Amino acid sequence: MAGGREEKDLVHLNAIHVENVKKERRYQKLHTEFSINPYRKIHVLPDKPMCRKPPESLSEDTTYIDAYRRVRMAPILKYPRPITESQEIGWFASELPPHDRQDPRLNFPRRKTDITQLALFAKKRGD
């Protein structure tokens, strides 16, 4: 064929297909472990009223309960460091130091001056 595309025979097509399958298998993972999404609310239904199985015979799987409790925890208890920038504010919060009433830098009590006493006096008189 002059200038056009050459048709590929079955051997070449099969080789291309085999190569594609090998690439797919290289990046393919088989997931056999499934669990319930802990971020989604589920509605637990009780057993049927005529069920003969005692509740003690059913085995408990605590992985879902632990995952649910972890989701509901505060971020400070879940993670060692803040994940987002908005979590950085207040992440390492500690209690304020004890309030010292004698320190004039931090304590601003109300003081009476001549002007404030005059205003209080006029207010009491009803002027």
UniProtKB/TrEMBL annotation:
Domain of life: Eukaryota
Keyword check for Cytoplasm: yes
Keyword annotations of the record: Cell projection, Cytoplasm, Cytoskeleton
Pfam families in the cross-refs: FAM183 (PF14886)
Compartments, as annotated in UniProt: Cell projection, Cilium; Cytoplasm, Cytoskeleton
Cellular component aspect of the GO annotation: ciliary base; cytoskeleton
Database matches in PANTHER family: PROTEIN FAM183B
Similarity annotation: Belongs to the CFAP144 family.
Protein name: Cilia and flagella associated protein 144
Organism of derivation: Xiphophorus maculatus (Southern platyfish)
Lineage: Eukaryota, Metazoa, Chordata, Craniata, Vertebrata
